[in-house]
Structure formats: structure tokens, C-alpha cells
Amino acid sequence: MQYNWPMNFEHLIQINDPDNPLVEPLDRDQLWLGLLHRVENPLPFLPGLESCTILERGEQTLLRELDFGPATIHDRVTLTDRQQVRFAIQPSPTHPGGSLTITIEEPEPGFLFLRFAYETTLAKDPNSEERAYIEYVKSAYHQSDVDCVRLIRMLAAGCPPQ
Fold it and tell me: Into how many domains does the chain fold?
């Protein structure tokens, strides 16, 4: 019997650390501009991405085609000004679909975090071997998000990522 089993994963990355003078603080606008850069030019943010074509542009949404060589993915990006970016991958024969929502959180003035929330489905309830693979995927997502913040910091410092 096949059924959909949700795989959800979320985590926070602290942006500003008042206790660490080596971490250059960023403000909400710098974070937002970095996220917009990821939307408009995702190549530095997504290893293996060969090109991105914006197929449709609305006031708060974009429809993109992401070319990874052997696979092409379509996603719809929804923007909530200076608060949130949501990437919804459209299901296809080669991809089950899913979403990534990145939210800027500021529990206190100057204390900024990015929350990364992933939602996708698997074809069936995973066995123990598949669960190990899921943990590997979650670790890869986390590392990708750490790299995203590193690239946003580079952009804020005036060093465009390659």
C-alpha cells in the first residue's frame, strides 16, 4: 500500500549575536535584500543550478523555471514584504513537490533570526534505512541554509557571491 508520508523540517539560524563582536550585525532590510537576491538570482545559492528563468511576475509572486541539467523544476515564489519568502515547488513526474518558507523573526529589537521550514512528502512511511537518509537530507538542508546566510552576509558587505 502506498500513501503520502509528510517530511517536515524546520530550524532557526541566529543572524545577530550581541555577545560575539566578530559577527557583523545585519538589519532586517539587509536580510530582506539578501533573500530577494536569492529569489532573483538563485545560482549562487543552489549548487548544481545551471539557469533560472522567470516565467511570470506578479506583484508579490514569481513563477520560475530552475534548470538543474537533467532535471527542470518549476516553483512559485510568494513574497511577504520584509517578512517572508515562500518557495512552492510544483509536483511533476520527477519531483513530488514541496515548499521552503524562510521567515525573518525578530523577538526583540536587533535580535534577528531566519526560520527555514521545509515541507515535502515521501511515497510511503520510511523504514529505518530510509530514516537515515532523511536525516542526511535534513543535514544537507541545514548546511545549505548556513551557506545562504553566509552569502547574504557577503552581499551586505558589498561582495557579490560568485
Answer: 1
